[in-house]
């Protein structure tokens, strides 16, 4: 619980920092030792002297940051020591190799979640609940507005949309982020697709990293080979959203567009006619799974990153000592009031 001492994991101008182990978690700037929860660009940044990540994330990290970086891959749940603390990485279920960081000093246990989800995803390891005293959680979809059914058959829905367009003689352009979402889409389609999916060049190398780790994905053909084709008709093209307004789209004839994202639930994108269709497929926990994860952690102290307001208020109503991440700044942490455990039994 809060005391006059600094937090085991503090919030600094470079990001989350554990002084007892002298390492940063997903630092925003170059540091000496960076533990990287996953290879998305807002978590894995260039310039650090050495990187530590989960073993299956090493290829992705090199693809993103350069083949010459110094990176150590540690398997899930294998403990290693840094300074005064024991550290282990546990699956976050977000993308391939995504990890929660468990840090223990004596009997004190903290967990920094990174980004995570709890839905089934054939492209990566499932989420693992990790008991702790203090939990630092993301909250990308941290409002009650974002709740989606967990029994969606994503692969079938994607394939049905593709086939409907193909029957009408149209191509299907499916937008998904190059790392994580694109490979999940290909994994979901693997049991259904009977022909290759055309993929944008930004997806190609990252997809190969997944295959090198043994993940089963639908067959693909790079769009770099498109010039050798006459015309495409009835095909599925998987590309990042950044090319939506590109002249590149004019080469694909008649098509329908869709975006696969959690933002498609109640999103203004659809109302603005940006896409013809939306698939609610998120790589982050929704409101219910955020709360479920906090409960399962057993933590009495919770710090919330990103869209923190609603989740912080909700946790406080349940008797948890909950705060936005700025409270992890040492000068703010020392001012935190004592933990109120009067309603903690509600979470048990």
CATH superfamily of the largest domain: Ribonuclease Z/Hydroxyacylglutathione hydrolase-like
Give the topology string: H per helix, E per strand: EEEEEHEEEEEEHEHEHEEEHEHEHEH
Could you tell me how far the N terminus lies from the C terminus, measured between alpha carbons in angstroms?
18 Å
Helix content: 10-25%
Largest sheet report: 7 strands, mixed
CATH A-level architecture of the largest domain: 4-Layer Sandwich
Question: What is the tally of helical segments?
Answer: 8
In the predicted model, the low-confidence regions spanning at least 5 consecutive residues are: 340-348
Q: What would the principal axes of the Cα set say about the shape?
A: globular
Which fold name fills CATH's third level, the topology of the largest domain? Metallo-beta-lactamase, Chain A
The secondary-structure class comes to alpha/beta
What can you tell me about this protein's structure?
Residues 340-348 have low confidence and may be disordered. This protein has eight helices and 19 strands. The radius of gyration is 21 Å and the shape is globular. It is of the alpha/beta class and 348 residues long. The chain folds into two domains: 10-146 and 284-347, Metallo-beta-lactamase, Chain A; 154-279, Rossmann fold (3-Layer(aba) Sandwich).
């Amino acid at each position: 619980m809060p005391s006059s001492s600094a937090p085991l994991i503090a919030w600094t101008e470079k990001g989350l920092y554990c002084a007892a182990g002298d390492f940063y978690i997903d630092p925003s700037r170059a540091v000496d030792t960076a533990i990287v929860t996953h290879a998305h660009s807002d978590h894995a940044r260039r310039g650090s002297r050495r990187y530590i990540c989960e073993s299956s994330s090493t290829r992705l990290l090199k693809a993103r940051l350069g083949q010459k970086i110094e990176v150590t891959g540690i398997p899930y749940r294998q403990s290693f020591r840094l300074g005064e603390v024991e550290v282990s990485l546990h699956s976050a279920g977000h993308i391939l190799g995504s990890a929660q960081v468990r840090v223990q000093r004596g009997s004190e246990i903290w967990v920094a979640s990174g980004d995570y989800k709890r839905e089934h995803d054939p492209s990566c390891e499932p989420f693992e609940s990790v008991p702790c005293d203090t939990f630092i959680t993301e909250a990308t979809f941290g409002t009650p507005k974002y709740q989606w059914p967990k029994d969606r058959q994503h692969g079938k829905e994607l394939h049905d949309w593709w086939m409907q367009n193909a029957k009408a003689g149209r191509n299907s352009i499916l937008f998904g982020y190059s790392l994580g979402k694109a490979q999940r889409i290909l994994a979901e389609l693997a049991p259904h697709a009977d022909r290759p999916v055309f993929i944008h060049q930004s997806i190609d190398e990252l997809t190969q990293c997944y295959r090198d780790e043994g993940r089963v994905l639908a067959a693909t053909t790079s769009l770099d080979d498109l010039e050798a084709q006459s015309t495409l008709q009835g095909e599925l093209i998987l590309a990042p959203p950044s090319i939506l307004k590109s002249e590149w789209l004019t080469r694909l004839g008649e098509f329908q567009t869709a975006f696969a994202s959690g933002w498609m639930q109640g999103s203004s994108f659809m109302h603005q006619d940006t896409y013809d269709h939306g698939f609610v497929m998120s790589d982050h926990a929704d409101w219910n799974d955020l709360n479920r994860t906090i409960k399962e952690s057993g933590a009495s102290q919770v710090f919330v990153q990103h869209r923190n307001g609603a989740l912080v208020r909700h946790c406080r109503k349940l008797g948890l000592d909950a705060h936005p991440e700025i409270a992890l700044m040492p000068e703010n942490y020392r001012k935190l009031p004592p933990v109120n455990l009067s309603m903690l039994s509600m979470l048990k």
